[in-house]
Amino acid sequence: MGEQSPESGSKTAKKTKRAAGKKAAAERDTASATAAAEASKAPARKAAKKSAAAPAGKASEKPKVKPRAAGKAATGEPSAKKAPARKAAAKKAPAGKGSAGRAVVAAAGRARKPAVVPERTTVDVEGTAPVKTVATRAPRDESRTALVRRARRINRELAEVYPYAHPELDFDNPFQLLVATVLSAQTTDLRVNQTTPALFAKYPTPEDLAAAVPEEVEEILRPCGFFRAKTRSVIGLSKALTEDFGGEVPGRLEDLVKLPGVGRKTAFVVLGNAFGRPGITVDTHFQRLVRRWKWTEETDPDKIEAAVGALFPKSDWTDLSHHVIWHGRRICHARKPACGACPIAPLCPACGEGETDPEKARKLLKYEKGGLPGQRLKPPQAYLDAGGRPAPPLGAG
User: Low complexity bias located where (predicted)?
Assistant: First the structure.
């Protein structure tokens, strides 16, 4: 009665074995789930440890972005410090949403660009050397009409100061004026006037000078400087006058400029003062003053002649040349203009470049005829030139 049959025993063992297998499978599932949960919590724990290690008060601060190096900024190479920032952004993104995580990283990268690029650009702009400009009182946006009026008023003022302006070379005929003008290059008119009397006494005509011995002419012209070149010029132009023009100085610009050593400046001096034909003499004084007065910005003598000639009627050209040259020699000097004694100071854009104190400026006034080169006068004071003609006072007031 208490005994079990073999069949019932085997069935019981099978049931027990199946129950044990199910229990083991359940335990394995539980263990794997626990391991997965632990693995998913690991990044959060690491982030918690980093935040705990950070100093107090700086956990919420955004990482400072330093400007990229010049080479990396130019080539677009990513900075070495971008990688940690991108990893942190990827860790903060929720699991299973890779596209959202990439969007966060991309947004973080875009947010840093304005902090880098403008800073670099600002440094480049501020570090660039500024363009150097010369501070002047030139009329701003002066119209053509205003320029013409101002230029003609300057000429009228100078005509009152220098009413007897004339060529400061001594001559009795066109030939002497032509030779004296050629000799005046790179020297003073006073020096030429001291030299030409001996030259014209020995060679009074073009035929005489054309037949002269060069060595003898060189000895006479030695005080003028560049005497060998000037000797070749005066002998050459004398031969050309004798052979081509019958010993007479031509009265046309086209003929004069063909003579050796004669350019447009020399030709206009001869035409204006020996033949009464208007011309503008663009010497060094004329060039300096018309640029100071902002009549033109040209530097080539021919272009200066054309630009200034367009501001005045042709009948004024010869006297205008004398007024400007006289003013440049007496008051508006190259190195230190006597601005304080200048009668046209209110019309001059460059007023103030020189001495503005009236008393000091008066001491800078100069003249040549009737004294040593560079001798100073106490203006106003009149003097007589070598021909006995009166000359104007050399000052304002």
Answer: 31-42, 91-113
For residues 200-219, give the mean pLDDT: 96
Of the listed 170, 189, 230, 265, which one is catalytic?
Answer: 265
265 annotated active-site: yes
How far apart (Å, rounded) are the C-alpha atoms in residues 269 and 272? 5
Task: Just give the CATH number of 172-277.
Answer: 1.10.340.30
Which two tokens mark 44?
């959060």
Q: Among 1.10.1670.10, 2.60.120.620, 3.40.50.11030, 3.40.50.300, what is the CATH number of 142-168+282-397?
A: 1.10.1670.10
Residue numbering of the annotated binding site for [4Fe-4S] cluster: 332, 339, 342, 348
Return the structure tokens found at 305. Answer: 């002649």
Put simply, whether the predicted model's pTM sits higher than 0.85 gets the answer: no
Q: Is 366 a catalytic residue?
A: no
Q: Where are the domains of the chain?
A: 142-168+282-397, 172-277
Question: Which residue in 255, 283, 363, 366 is the catalytic one?
Answer: 283
**What's the pLDDT tens digit per position in 161-197?**
888 888 889 999 999 999 999 999 889 888 999 999 9
DSSP string, 40-95: HHHHHHHHHHHHHHSPTT-TTSPPP-PPPPHHHHHHTPPPTTHHHHHHHHHHHSPT
pLDDT digits (tens, 9 = 90+) for 341-386: 999 999 999 999 999 999 999 888 886 444 333 333 333 333 334 4
Residue 243 burial (10 A CB sphere; 0-12, 13-18, 19+): exposed
- pLDDT-based confidence at residue 28 (cuts at 50, 70, 90): confident
